[in-house]
Write a structure and sequence with these properties.
The complex is a heterodimer of chains A (292) and B (203). Chain A folds into 2 domains: 110 residues; 127 residues, no CATH class. Chain A is of the alpha+beta class and 292 residues long. Chain A contains 8 helices and 9 strands. In chain A, a hairpin with a 5-residue loop joins strand 8 and strand 9. By secondary structure, chain B is an alpha/beta fold. Helix content of chain B is 29%, strand content 33%. The chains are: A alpha+beta (292), B alpha/beta (203). Chains A and B meet through helix 3, helix 5 and helix 6 of A and helix 5, strand 10 and helix 7 of B.
Chain lengths: 292, 203
Amino acid sequence: MDSLFESLIEIIRRTSAEIPDDVQRAILASLENEKQDTIAKSAMEIIERNIALAKEKSQPLCQDTGSVLFYVDCPVGYDQIEFADVARGAVTEATKRGFLRQNSVDSLTGKNDGTNIGPGTPAFHFHQTRKTNVIVRLVLKGGGCENVGAQYSLPNTKLNANRDLDGCRKVILDAVQQAQGKGCGPGILGVCIGGDRATGYELSKTQFLRTLDDENDNAELAELENDIHATANKLGIGPMGFGGNTTLLGVKIRAANRVPASYFVSVSYMCWAFRRHGATLNEAGEITEWLY
Amino acid sequence: MKREKSRSGFIEMTELTTPISEGQIRTLKVGDSVAISGVVYTGRDAVHKYLHEGGELPAGVSLEGGIIYHCGPVVVKDDAGDWQVTAAGPTTSIREEPYQAGIMKKFGVRGVIGKGGMGPKTLAGCAENGSVYLHAIGGAAQVLAEHITQVRNVYFMEEFGSPEAIWELEVDQFPAVVTMDSHCKSLHAEVAEASQAVLEENL
């Protein structure tokens, strides 16, 4: 694992500074879609400029470099403990180099020791696979968009939402309405229908590993994704909540089984500064291929 | 007033230079683009709670006619030992809703820069004090950092940590939009009401 340390720093740097191609395409499309001489249009122009500038300067797209979430697919027998140790070191080094903000705060004392290391941070999600290589995906999720995430328990009387896909549609759109511009829209939704309170949110976040232009394998969910995307863009919330045509850049939904008594819909909101990259590593820990 | 060229044409920007007079603030309306120059102080959750609970501003900090920026920047020391801001977009403002109006009044704050807008208490405070809410583009940390020309000082670094500290920043033509003015008008309230109506038609 000699090269793992430097590879992880490079993954962190790239994730912090460079927006993935699929997101960039969606942002450019929405820029074209806003009316001339509106504050929505000028907001999207600043966003476009920001994307170019961050890449050129190799500096964070957004100063809130967010929760550091690692998703690691690894072969049977891979030393996950060592990976996590090396990754924690890489996170601290990436913080020193300014790719990450000093972003990990002790919840009881309020102290921020500047390392980005502490109980629960960074977060690791390991998955064993039968493949021989290691795939590391990284999501940096800012706090502003995390704060507008929402979890609904159906039925919901106030929203007249029952335990069916129409009920899911109602609560997901409510989450968009409640978020307005506070999550730095135009945003992207990751949704999980089902699961428990913990797995529901966790699985909603894994939807951010999908590319915006992919198609859901499940036809009903694909239709729901398209419907919510189109309906949300009719609401006129627009970039930053300034009013405008693009409220969402994408919607990704999955389902998970639930216990009969529970029916949760968990909605995670991702800001336009959608930071997600990933790479395949060889046995020496060197990057052999970028994923996004 | 200055005209800034953008890809889609020209944007009229009102120039604001700190310290700002109440008279100038009263001329601003929701939807106006502004370019801010002078000094701004960052302050977010920890600072607002501290001031709300009666804490004093550190010596050297004056908010009279000034601007608070809801921001936790990425700041690194360069080889010469000077602070350099490398990323500095706004943070979500609504968390300061319980405190903002009181702090505006007590310290003579004329403007608050943030994102996402604030609520009725702050809007009433803006009308009473002659203050405005200025929306910067959330996430645009690089574009906005380019308008920060110097870090003049930092306060409460030890107590609150870097993102929550008060950073005294010199800014030049920092771009923002007035989304809550001193005449009780809020773009955020208008958009939320309109979008709720459309949502109900589409359920």
